[in-house]
Each structure stands twice: as C-alpha cells, then as structure tokens.
Amino acid sequence: QVQLVESGGGLVQPGGSLRLSCAASGFTFSSSTMSWYRQAPGKERELVASITGAGRSANYADSMKGRFTISRDNAKNTTYLQMNNLKPEDTAVYYCATVGVASGRTYWGQGTQVTVSS
Known about the structure:
About 0% of the residues lie in helices and about 50% in strands. With about 120 residues, it is mainly beta.
C-alpha cells in the first residue's frame, strides 16, 4: 500500500534552514506528482509546493517562492523540501502527499513538525 514517511523537521531559529524528506513506497513514484503541504495551529492545511513525476516542473505558493525548493530523487523514491530563511510564520506540521493515479485518492504522510523560534 501507499506509504509516505516524512523526516527532517525540528526547531530552528529565524533565518535558518531545514531540509525535509519524504520517503515513498507502494506506488510508481517516478510517474507521480508529489506535493508538500503544511498546517499551522488553528489554520487550514495549505499547499506549499508540488513537483511533477520527472521533476521538470515545480510550483510554489507565493509566500514560499524564493525561499523553498522542492526536488526529488526518483532512484531513491524520495522527495525533498529545502527551506531557507525560515520565519516564525513557517511554523507548522509539514505533510507529504500524492494523488493515486487510478483511485484519485490523496495519500498523506504522518507529518513532521517544523518550529521556527528564537
């Protein structure tokens, strides 16, 4: 079955960097668009970035452009989110997600907590 396992979250000071990883299994990773979402306390889950299967195209939410970079390694079935110049408002649980090609169902990882604080 589809499994998505995020890692790399933690506590970082404002202006710092983190790289999140999402290890995927149970589906054809190289054919699947992968996305990162985040959910801050008391707020709705929002899309951070997406990358197509071959990695040729990526999209970002406006507030993350220029600071975050999504990438993938299809040989490792892993997608990454490099986050630079982090701000306190980036504090959230970050989730990896993909949509099943046949089912149309969205699959989610368990999330990884990112806290930006001095």
